[in-house]
Design a protein that fits this description.
Elements lengths: L3 H6 L12 H40 L9 H20 L3 H17 L1 H8 L5 H11 L4 H15 L4 H15 L4 H8 L4 E6 L5 E6 L2 H21 L9 H14 L18 E2 L2 H4 L21 E2 L3 E2 L2 H9 L28 H11 L15 E4 L14 E4 L1 H9 L3 E4 L5 E4 L5 E4 L9
Antiparallel strand pairs: 1-2, 3-4, 4-5, 6-7, 8-9, 9-10
Length: 437
C-alpha cells in the first residue's frame, strides 16, 4: 500500500469541477467513497503502528517500574495513554479512540482480507466494522473461515443487511456455546444518556435481550391500554409518544396513570438556574425590564445542558433548598484557603463545580459531580487549595495525570494547558466560566 501522504495527496479536492450529468455525478460520488475507504485502511495501519510503538515502549520501561507494577499493568497504562493521545489528536471521545485502536488492531493483525477489501474500496468502513464486531470474539482459526464466508456478501449488501448474515455466520463458526457467551456478555450491561437538540435527550440501555424485550412489551401494553380506554379522540398522543410517556412515568415516579402524573418515588435532578431566569416572568405573564443589559446565561440541567426557562422554574419550584453563590459580576471572586488545609471547603467546591461543569481533560464530558477535585500543582509540592490551582478530573483522567507523562498547568481564568506524552499541547476552558477571548 502507498504511504499515507502519497495516497491522501491523490484524493480529489472539494473544489474540483464535475460533469453536469447525473450519471457522472453519481460515479464521482462512488469514486470518492472508494478513496475514503482506502484512506481509512491507511489510517488503520497508522493507528496500529502507534499501538505497537506504545506496547514496545511499555515493555522497555517495565524493568524501571515500581515493584508493584507488572509488565502487563504497564502495557495497560500505555494503552490508556495512547487512547488519550488519539482522542485529543482526532478530537473524538476516548471511548471512540479506544474502539478505533481495537478495530485497527483487528484489521491489520487479524482480518487481513477485510483490510485489503477496504483498501481497494470494495467495502466501506461501516462494512468493516460489522465484520470486526462479529469476528472479534472468534479464535484466529475461525476468523479466516468467517471472513471467507462474509466478504463476498459485504461487497454487494448494505452494512445494515450484512449484520444479520454476519451474526448468523459467527454463530456457525463460534467454538463456545451461546449459553457461555450470554453469561459473559451480561457483565457489559449499562445505561447511557446522550443529549439531543431542543430540550430532548436519548436514554438507551444495553440489557439482556429477554429483559429488554419484556420492558418494551410492558411499555407497549400499558400505552395500548391507555389508547383503548380513552373515549373518542380524547387521547391526542400517538402510540410512540405514549410509550415514551409510560416509560418516563415508570422510571421517574414508579407508577403510571393516564394523566402522565404519578405519586411514587420521585427521581432527583440537579439544575443550575440564574436568579434572573427565575424572575424572568411576572404573574401577569409580562417580561420585566432588567436593570442590566448583560447576557443572562440559560438554566442548565446537570448532565444535559441548557434548558428553557419554564422547565427551569418548574424544577426550581420543587427544589427543597438552594445553594447560593455570590460573586462580582465582572472580576469574579478568588476563593482560596491557601496552604492552611488540603481538603476543599464546601463553598469552594461549589464554585469549582459551577465553573468546570465537566472533567477538564481534553475532550472528556463526564460531569463534575462525578469527578474528583485535583490540585494542579500537587499539595506535596507546594500547591495551594485555591480556585486557580484546582480543577475537576474524572477518576480515570485523575489517575492518568498522576501515573503517566501527561502534564497540566493553570493559565488563569480556569483555563488549563495540557501537554501530552508525545509533546502535543491542548487547551481546555471551563464550561461555566467566562467565554475565552
Amino acid at each position: 500500500m502507498n504511504a499515507p501522504g502519497v495516497a491522501l495527496a491523490e484524493a480529489p479536492r472539494p473544489s474540483m469541477q464535475f460533469a453536469d450529468s447525473l450519471a457522472d455525478l453519481l460515479q464521482g460520488a462512488a469514486t470518492l467513497e472508494r478513496v475514503i475507504a482506502s484512506a481509512q485502511a491507511i489510517r488503520a495501519e497508522v493507528i496500529d503502528r502507534a499501538r505497537q510503538l506504545a506496547e514496545l515502549s511499555a515493555v522497555a520501561e517495565s524493568a524501571e517500574c515500581d515493584r508493584d507494577e507488572s509488565p502487563s499493568t504497564r502495557r495497560q497504562l500505555a494503552h490508556r495513554v495512547l487512547a488519550s493521545e488519539v482522542a485529543c489528536a482526532l478530537r473524538v471521545p476516548e471511548r471512540s479512540a479506544e474502539r478505533l485502536i481495537d478495530e485497527s488492531d483487528m484489521l491489520v493483525a487479524h482480518l487481513g482480507a477485510t483490510h485489503r477489501a477496504l483498501a481497494e474500496g470494495l467495502i466501506s468502513y461501516r462494512h468493516a466494522q460489522v465484520i470486526i464486531d462479529e469476528a472479534q470474539s472468534l479464535p484466529d482459526a475461525a476468523r479466516s473461515r468467517f471472513e471467507q464466508a462474509v466478504l463476498p456478501t459485504a461487497e454487494r449488501l448494505t452494512a445494515a443487511r450484512l449484520r444479520p448474515r454476519a451474526r448468523a455466520e459467527r454463530e456457525r463458526n463460534h467454538p463456545d456455546s451461546i449459553e457461555r457467551r450470554v453469561e459473559k456478555s451480561r457483565a457489559d450491561r449499562q445505561v447511557l444518556l446522550e443529549p439531543a437538540h431542543d430540550g430532548m435527550a436519548w436514554l438507551s440501555a444495553f440489557l439482556p435481550a429477554e429483559r429488554a424485550s419484556a420492558i418494551y412489551e410492558r411499555v407497549s401494553s400499558v400505552a395500548l391500554g391507555i389508547k383503548r380506554t380513552s373515549p373518542g379522540d380524547d387521547e391526542p398522543r400517538t402510540l410512540t409518544q405514549l410509550r415514551a410517556d409510560v416509560l418516563t412515568d415508570l422510571l421517574v415516579d414508579g407508577v403510571v396513570d393516564a394523566t402522565g402524573f404519578g405519586t411514587g418515588v420521585r427521581a432527583t435532578v440537579h439544575v443550575t438556574v440564574p436568579v434572573e431566569r427565575l424572575l424572568g416572568v411576572t404573574t401577569s405573564g409580562e417580561t420585566p425590564t432588567l436593570s442590566s443589559s448583560a447576557f443572562i446565561p440559560p438554566a442548565e440541567l446537570e448532565g444535559y445542558g441548557p434548558i428553557d426557562d419554564e422547565t427551569a422554574r418548574e424544577l426550581a419550584a420543587g427544589a427543597p433548598s438552594f445553594t447560593r453563590l455570590l460573586r462580582h459580576p465582572e472580576s469574579g471572586a478568588v476563593l482560596s484557603v491557601g496552604r492552611d488545609r488540603y481538603s476543599v471547603p464546601a463553598d469552594l467546591a461549589t464554585a469549582l463545580r459551577i465553573r468546570d461543569r465537566t472533567c477538564r481533560f481534553p475532550g472528556c464530558g463526564r460531569s463534575a459531580a462525578r469527578s474528583d477535585i485535583d490540585h494542579t500543582v500537587d499539595w506535596q509540592f507546594g500547591g495551594t487549595t485555591s480556585i486557580d490551582n484546582l480543577a475537576h478530573l474524572c477518576p480515570s483522567h485523575h489517575q492518568l495525570k498522576h501515573r503517566s507523562d501527561w502534564r497540566v498547568s493553570q493559565e488563569g481564568g480556569g483555563m488549563l494547558r495540557w501537554r501530552s506524552p508525545s509533546g502535543l499541547t491542548y487547551v481546555t476552558h471551563p464550561e461555566g466560566g467566562p467565554a475565552p477571548p
